[in-house]
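Deviation from plan, reported transparently: iron/sulfur cluster complex.
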Amino acid sequence: MIRPILRAMKALGEKRSTVEFPEKRESLPDSYRGSLRLDMSTCISCRACEIICPNKTITMVDVLTDKGRKVMPQVGHERCLFCALCEEVCPPKCLTLSKDYSYEAYDKRELLKRPEELE
Ligand code: SF4
Ligand code: SF4
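Because the crystal trials were delayed, the predicted structure below was used instead.
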């Protein structure tokens, strides 16, 4: 009975073990795979990312650019396996996995990101 009280009193004097998210972020290893980023200016609309994705996370959607209408990837992060196959197969390397892990949401539909939101 006394042991938990003693442990709680000891913890009061200790440094916090959690970081003040989102102001402070944990340092992540180089191999960490976070949410996807797209450089719309170099995407060639080849669909390779959509075809290779094992979980059908990517769908191509219409986008209006300076050069007219194109199709580019839309990503449903709630289904992403972070396998990086889309990154590997992308010819101009415009689709990449970032170190960002702050994609929490109350509604999973908020995790569906259009190409403009991936930039
Ligand atoms: S990381 Fe893998 S699961 Fe996620 S979108 Fe790319 S290919 Fe699909
Ligand atoms: S993101 Fe890369 S793989 Fe996907 S359509 Fe654009 S150029 Fe092709």
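The chain has a mean pLDDT of 93. We consider this an acceptable substitute for the interim report.
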